[in-house]
Amino acid sequence: MMEERRKHPRATISLDVTVWHTSGREWDGESVDVSPGGLNVKFAGDLEPGSMVTLIFTLPDGGPMISALSAVVRKSAEGQCFAFASLSYADLVRLQKLVRAHIAGSSPGPTPS
Q: pLDDT digits over 7-20, tens only?
C-alpha cells in the first residue's frame, strides 16, 4: 500500500488560473485540484520541473486575487503540479478553508455583508 506523502489535503476544484513564466510567457489554464500547498493546473504550456512561475487566481470566497510565486514539481496526466514558494499567511488560511469546505461537501461563496 502506498503511503500518502502530501502535507496538505487536496480537493477537486476548478478555478481559472493564469500561469506567468519568468521569461514573460503567459498561459490561461484551469485548476484540476487545489491544496493549501499548491495547484495542479491544466494549460497549454510545457514547463520543466524546477521552473519558477507566478500563479494568479481568484477563490470563490469574494476575497482578493492571489498571486503566488510557485515551482513546477512534476507533470501529471491532468496537467502540471505546482508548489507555492511564496504565499501570504492570509491566502494560506483562505485556501485551507476552501479545501476543508469542499471536502466536507459545501462550497464557500462570498461572505454576506
A: 667 888 999 999 99
